[in-house]
Amino acid sequence: MALLEAHRVVKRFGGLMAVNEVDFTIEPGSMVSIIGPNGAGKTTFFNCITGIYKPEGGEITFDGHSLVGQRSDQITALGIARTFQNIRLFANMTVLENVLVGMHAHMRAHLWDILARTVEFSREDEASRKKAQEILEYVGLKGSGDELAKNLPYGQQRRVEIARALASTPRLLLLDEPAAGMNPAEIVTLMELIHFIRDRFDLTILLIEHQMRVVMGICEHITVMDFGEVIARGTPREIQDNPRCIEAYLGKGAASAA
């Protein structure tokens, strides 16, 4: 059974059709990617999955639960986490505090417990901090917990964002251009990290990425979008040789030459 299924999803912004009857399926444990030129509708589709946008048509289900109309926090609680194309950390909070934010969907303490510093809250807080430190170690940030997020190099800030997503205990992790702004060496370590966290946390991973080195190097299946529609699906080799994909990226002349 598919973990995530989208059927004929539609999202408009005024007269602009950003996502046009998109069908999409993800199998448990897979590593897949959505690619396409700028403006193809990739991030809009991500936002429909995660509750930032409500689609005007179609259905999206996760493990049998409909996601359409659900709030983002409810979707997180179901087991979907994401990162963003532009890093969205709490710049003036520590790295550890940023990761702890990711745990809010599963915290049981109420406001009174926090204010009164009850035994139950203290135990949960201690366990959460321990878990956050472990996640930071997994993503290569051991010893950085007390640093302000804004003081870390760009590549490490990306890792903090991934750590915060992992803190919500997801089953499906959505990565929106995780390699954006990274140098070649950082891209290699990112690819290794994505493989590691998929296996360590038993995740299904869906990513949007413009770095073809990442997409072709780690993804098992690729979906290509252009002008809000799916134009191709296949393995990395099949996508590399697909004339419609070449045309979408490089123009008709390049497709003809290929």
- The CA-CA distance between the termini, in Å, is 37 Å
Report the strand count: 10
Helix content class? 40-55%
Number of domains: 2
Give helix and strand order, one letter per element, not per position.
Answer: EEEHEEHEHHHHEHEHEEHHH
Low-confidence stretches are 253-258
Spatial strand sequence of the major β-sheet: 6-7-8-3-9-10
Structural class: alpha/beta
Mean pLDDT: 89
Specify the number of helices: 11
Which CATH top level class of the largest domain fits? Alpha Beta
Radius of gyration: 19 Å
The proportion of residues in beta strands is 15-25%
- Largest sheet, described in full? 6 strands, mixed
CATH topology of the largest domain: Rossmann fold
CATH architecture designation of the largest domain: 3-Layer(aba) Sandwich
| CATH superfamily descriptor of the largest domain | P-loop containing nucleotide triphosphate hydrolases
Write down the overall geometry. Answer: globular
What can you tell me about this protein's structure?
With 258 residues, this protein is an alpha/beta fold. The chain folds into 2 domains: 168 residues, P-loop containing nucleotide triphosphate hydrolases (Rossmann fold, 3-Layer(aba) Sandwich), CATH 3.40.50; 77 residues, no CATH class. Helix content is 40%, strand content 23%. It contains 11 helices and 10 strands. The strands form 2 sheets. It has a 6-stranded mixed beta sheet with strand order 6-7-8-3-9-10, sandwiched between helices. It has a 4-stranded antiparallel beta sheet with strand order 2-1-4-5, with helices on one face. Strand 1 and strand 2 form a beta hairpin. Helix 5 crosses helix 6. The radius of gyration is 19 Å and the shape is globular. It starts with a strand and ends with a helix.
